[in-house]
């Protein structure tokens, strides 16, 4: 028996003698099946293939975890350190004893919260490795959970607090249950938003974008973008950390979201013009 992992999205499936016939997360139009067809691996195989996790301090109290070499979608996870315990935000597939020891040296983790199904990865392995800690997933995405566990906590509504001083906010968009994490004490007290790719920090690192599917370039409806921008407007933060390495805006992040949403909606409506246009 093995817990097979989809090579394209990095999500782990429960114990089975043979790999699943397909990965429904990758067969959904927001993702894709790898060009060489559906492929599987296991955590044990990865541990012998030269993978490792790099931990880096992004700012005081915020540690990123990134797997090298690149695997699956390639997102990073974060350990958010608080006086009430540490939270793992989002998840990476790869996990080994070296990573567990490094996270324990930071004080361990008391809970896990995940933004959306593409980052479910090995959530059960992570929960079990730290003593069966709760994994918070929004009810809007419960049908995408392919590896169940008694430690998964399904929450509903607009907000919930996984630990004191941290707030999960359901914004939807990319997925119905898509959530971001608001950390008001982060950024030296100026506030931090951890957004996964519910709100995607883009390459210029001055703006963000919103998509129904990123790899397949399916845009999100303008009304949805307007709703997301309005919902996040009530939160005060200067910094936003996205899903991918070095994708962060370190000043004026709240304004960047509002400006980017307006630009996005204008382009969808066909009223945007390049600054050099006459």
Any idea of the CATH topology?
Metallo-beta-lactamase, Chain A
Beta-strand percent range: 25-35%
Q: In CATH terms, what is the architecture?
A: 4-Layer Sandwich
| Poorly predicted sequence stretches spanning 5 or more consecutive residues | none
Assembly form of the protein: single chain
Determine and state the CATH class.
Alpha Beta
Radius of gyration: 18 Å
What percentage of residues falls in helices of 4 or more residues?
10-25%
The helix/strand order is EEHEHEEEEHEHEEEEEEEEEEHEEH
Report on this structure.
The chain is α+β, with helices and mostly antiparallel strands and 278 residues long. The chain has one domain: Metallo-beta-lactamase, Chain A (4-Layer Sandwich). Helices cover 19% and strands 29% of the residues. It has helices spanning 24-27, 43-47, 97-105, 123-129, 222-232, 253-269; strands at 2-6, 12-16, 40-42, 52-59, 62-68, 77-82, 85-89, 111-113, 135-138, 152-155, 159-160, 167-170, 179-183, 192-196, 200-201, 208-209, 211-213, 218-219, 239-242, 248-249. A seven-stranded mixed beta sheet has the order 4-5-6-7-8-9-10, with helices on one face. The protein has a six-stranded mixed beta sheet with strand order 11-12-13-14-19-20, covered by helices on one side. Strands 2-1-3 form a three-stranded antiparallel beta sheet. Helix 5 packs antiparallel against helix 6. The N and C termini lie far apart (65 Å). The mean pLDDT is 97.
């Amino acid at each position: 028996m093995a817990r097979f992992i989809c090579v394209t999205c990095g999500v782990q499936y429960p114990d089975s003698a043979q790999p699943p016939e397909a990965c429904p997360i990758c067969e959904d139009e927001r993702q894709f099946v790898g060009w060489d067809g559906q492929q599987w691996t296991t955590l044990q195989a990865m541990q012998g293939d030269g993978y490792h996790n790099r931990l880096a301090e992004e700012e005081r109290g915020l540690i990123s975890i990134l797997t090298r070499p690149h695997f699956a979608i390639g997102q990073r996870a974060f350990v958010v350190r608080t006086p009430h315990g540490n939270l793992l935000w989002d998840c990476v597939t790869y996990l080994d004893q070296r990573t567990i020891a490094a996270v324990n040296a930071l004080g361990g983790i008391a809970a896990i919260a995940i933004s959306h199904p593409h980052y479910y990865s090995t959530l059960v392995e992570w929960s079990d490795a730290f003593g069966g800690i709760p994994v918070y997933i929004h009810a809007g995405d419960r049908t995408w959970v392919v590896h169940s566990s008694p430690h998964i906590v399904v929450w509903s509504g607009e907000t919930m607090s996984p630990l004191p001083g941290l707030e999960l906010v359901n914004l939807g968009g990319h997925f119905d249950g898509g959530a971001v994490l608001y950390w008001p004490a982060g950024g030296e007290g100026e506030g931090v938003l951890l957004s996964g790719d519910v709100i995607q920090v883009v390459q210029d690192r001055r703006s963000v974008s919103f998509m129904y599917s990123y790899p397949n370039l399916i845009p999100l409806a303008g009304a949805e973008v307007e709703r997301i921008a309005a919902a996040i407007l009530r939160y005060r933060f200067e910094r936003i950390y996205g899903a991918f390495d070095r994708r962060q805006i370190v000043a004026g992040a709240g304004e960047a979201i509002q400006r980017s949403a307006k630009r996005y909606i204008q382009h969808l409506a066909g009223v945007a013009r390049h600054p050099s246009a006459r």
